[in-house]
Fold this protein.
Amino acid sequence: MDKRTLLAVVLSALVLFAYYTWFPMKGPQPTEQQVQQTEKKQEVVTQVAKPASAPTEIPLKEGTPQNIPETRAPIKESLLKTNKANAQLSSQTGLPIFWKLNDYFQNANNKGPHINLLEGGKDNPPLQLFLFPGKETVLPYFEEAGKTSDNLQYQAVHKGLKLEQNVKSLSEDYGLEVKVKIKNLTPQPQAIQPGLRLLTQQRKKDNGAGFLNFLKQQDFITPLFYADQEVTRQHSLDEIGDYTEETGDISWSGLEGRYFVRAIIAETSTGTNQQAYGKTGAYIFSDFRYPKENLNPGSEKEYRFTLYLGPKNPTYLNAFEDVHLNEAIDYGCLRWWPALFYGYLNFLNLLSVIGVWPLLC
């Protein structure tokens, strides 16, 4: 090969190298649809490859329920018969909304409607339940879980608490037992203070005319309670404020009229039981509550209350003499004389029943 041919080959190689360096070859261009598909695949791969971030934890306040559904069953009313009264209970509170006495009537000679010691409505139930510290009662809207002739069972979930409530008539006349079992379903301790409230509408003052009308003793409803071995009464309506509270060795508290008493009796007296009374509008109330305590997560505790809703008759009140419920009768300063005279009348009645009195006459 001569020099000219060799020079031509070298120059041609240099020209080709320079051309492809400055003007590289391009492959076939993808269509717009292919570009979109490629971008989607890259986005999916990026999402899969990205590590998942840890979930953000929301701090819980003490006693706050977490994902615990509350029950709110429709209101159902059920009858419960006792020895001396007919009761109707509402699932709104799991407690009686009326209590009609079989042997006592509104009119003389055993005529007219039966006397009802519990009067209220949906907005102001005559018996209400406390669960938490403070002055507010709760409406759990129970579901009826079981029923017999003398026993009603309810259950509900309210603000992270599982409630099982049992209402049973007692062998003692005019007596009723209420048991409440409380279980904490939340992951935090719950502060609780169970109790009951008696509520009734105050009777209006009778301003009737007549020369001797000032001698007429009016039958108002007033609070009373038994603490430290004595009864405390509040007879003056003007001195009853909106809310008066006392803590101590309280065995029972309630409301009294001239002839009847409504009382909430404690199962145990710890020295730190609490009672309160007051008036709100046309209503007067009396509360009884056990001491405040913390219920740990998953823990449960049962509380028991006894109700007496009946006449101020020593025969019936003496059935609860262990808590001195007979002190609900105010005999005055000569208390020994009425008690002696009442026993004498009962003795005469006994003679009549067994047939001895007619023979003596």
The CA atoms of residues 245 and 279 lie 12 Å apart.
